[in-house]
């Protein structure tokens, strides 16, 4: 456990606040990215978004007279983190571009379940059979939303699932990142990984780049600014308190994402989406409650 992580109730509450703020801003970022992807190729959106966010964090680092590179950047946890960042961003942006915002957001909400499971398996955090059961129930909610085998099943929904796995791996690797790598440096290299994802996708499926019009440029600027702030909040949340206590608050992104999908893109909720969302949210709430109870019992 890194020195800047404080496993106590106050740290858990502070981490939860950072997580809710991050989820609201990420939902706004998703809306801008989805809108931008309707006016220009996905690879172009990824590259501009990634480089723009990297410039924001590089500017903040220089303003604070902090280095843009430290040897720990190439450490094993950071290399693993970069791999998951690239894969998570690539698949999730494709899901945003090709599927409804609400469904992509709902599927992504299973990320905390994978992170809690990973925290137990990788970091040895105590997760009893009750929370393991909640994890499986939440994953069942993902299956309900995707509906494999049903006539309404879309293979494109797998994109959001792959993005979810990538983000879970990124968050776990962020927790293992060396203490010398601060939030701003994590943000810088995280956004550079997004640009790399765009380059990879451009090589796999090349499309002619287009010059963004005024509206498209505003979408990209909004995504960059919202994403930069959201990223900073997320990294602060993951490095404050215990993973199993902080990550359940990710489900608030579901509320923000669905609301924006309905209001901005005219999307509609389906019965499987409502049921699956309920299972995921219920699992997250139970994990949070159980984590607090275990903490109280151990302190008592």
Which structural traits does this protein have?
single chain; globular; 12 helices; mainly alpha; 300 residues
Instruction: Name the helix and strand elements from N-terminus to C-terminus, one letter apiece.
Output: HHHHHHHHHHHH
Q: Work out the helix count.
A: 12
Ends apart, CA distance between termini: 23 Å
- Please summarize the sheet with the most strands: none
Question: What is the number of beta strands?
Answer: 0
Describe the overall structure.
Helix 5 packs parallel to helix 7 (157-176). By secondary structure, the chain is mainly α. Helices cover 76% and strands 0% of the residues. It is built from twelve helices and no strands. The model has no long low-confidence stretch (mean pLDDT 86). The chain has one domain (9-294).
Which helices and strands appear, and what pairs or packs with what?
Blueprint: H1 9-37, H2 42-63, H3 76-98, H4 101-108, H5 111-123, H6 129-146, H7 157-176, H8 183-204, H9 214-238, H10 243-246, H11 252-265, H12 271-299
Helix pairs in contact: 1-9, 1-11, 2-8, 2-9, 3-7, 3-8, 4-7, 4-11, 5-6, 5-7, 6-12, 8-9
């Amino acid at each position: 456990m890194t020195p800047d992580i404080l496993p106590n109730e106050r740290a858990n509450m502070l981490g939860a606040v950072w997580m809710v703020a991050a989820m609201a801003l990420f939902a706004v970022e998703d809306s801008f990215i989805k809108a931008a992807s309707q006016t220009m190729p996905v690879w172009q959106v990824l590259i501009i978004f990634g480089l723009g966010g990297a410039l924001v964090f590089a500017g903040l680092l220089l303003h604070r007279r902090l280095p843009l590179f430290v040897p720990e950047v190439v450490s094993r946890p950071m290399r693993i983190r970069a791999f998951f960042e690239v894969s998570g961003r690539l698949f999730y942006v494709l899901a945003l571009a090709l599927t409804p915002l609400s469904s992509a957001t709902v599927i992504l909400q299973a990320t905390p379940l994978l992170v809690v499971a990973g925290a137990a398996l990788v970091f040895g955090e105590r997760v009893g059979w009750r929370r393991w059961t909640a994890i499986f129930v939440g994953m069942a909610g993902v299956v309900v939303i995707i509906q494999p085998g049903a006539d309404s099943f879309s293979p494109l929904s797998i994109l959001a699932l792959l993005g979810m796995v990538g983000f879970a791996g990124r968050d776990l690797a962020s927790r293992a990142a060396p203490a010398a790598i601060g939030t701003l440096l994590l943000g810088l290299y995280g956004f550079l990984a997004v640009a790399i994802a765009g380059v990879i996708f451009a090589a796999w499926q090349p499309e002619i780049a287009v010059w963004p019009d005024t509206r498209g440029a505003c979408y990209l600027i909004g995504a960059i600014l919202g994403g930069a702030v959201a990223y900073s909040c997320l990294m602060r949340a993951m490095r404050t308190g215990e993973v199993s206590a902080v990550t359940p608050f990710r489900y608030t992104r579901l509320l923000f994402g669905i609301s924006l999908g309905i209001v901005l893109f005219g999307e509609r909720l389906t019965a499987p989406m409502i049921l699956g969302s309920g299972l995921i949210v219920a699992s997250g709430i139970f994990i949070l409650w159980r984590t607090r109870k275990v903490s109280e019992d151990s302190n008592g």
